[in-house]
Amino acid sequence: MDGKNRKDIKPGLKVEVVLKRDQRTGKLTEGVVKEILTSSSFHPHGIKVRLADGQVGRVARIVG
């Protein structure tokens, strides 16, 4: 599942995100969602989240 719909993402979910610094390469970083930062229900580049370790990125893929 991709991370473009806000309804699919909940705190505590394991996801792969693209961090701001990795947008050029598309490198994925795995982590657990702490907080959802995007307020709209859909975003074409992925919903922006804060991970449990404090990193911020857009969800590329929901792991589980």
Structural key phrases:
about 40% strand, single chain, about 0% helix, SH3 type barrels, 4-stranded antiparallel β-barrel, 4 strands, mainly beta, about 60 residues
Give a written overview of the molecule:
This protein has 64 residues and is mostly beta strands. It contains no helices and four strands. The chain has a single domain, classed as SH3 type barrels (Roll), CATH 2.30.30. 0% of the residues lie in helices and 41% in strands. It is globular and about 25 Å long. The protein starts with 13 loop residues before the first strand and ends with a strand. The mean pLDDT is 96.
Show the helix and strand layout.
Blueprint: E1 14-19, E2 28-36, E3 48-51, E4 56-62
Antiparallel strand pairs: 1-2, 1-4, 2-3, 3-4
What's this model, at a glance?
With 64 residues, the protein is mostly beta strands.
Distance between the termini: 9 Å
pLDDT averaged over residues: 96
SSE order in H/E notation?
Answer: EEEE
The main β sheet shows up as: 4 strands, antiparallel, barrel
Q: Indicate the structural class.
A: mainly beta
Low-confidence stretches: none
User: What's the alpha carbon Rg, rounded to whole Å?
Assistant: 10 Å
Please tell me what the overall shape is: globular
The total strand number stands at 4
Strand percent estimate: 35-45%
CATH C-level label: Mainly Beta
What is the helix fraction of residues, given as a range? Answer: under 10%
Provide a count of the helices: 0
Count structural domains.
1
Strand ordering within the main sheet: 1-2-3-4
CATH fold call: SH3 type barrels
- Corresponding CATH architecture: Roll
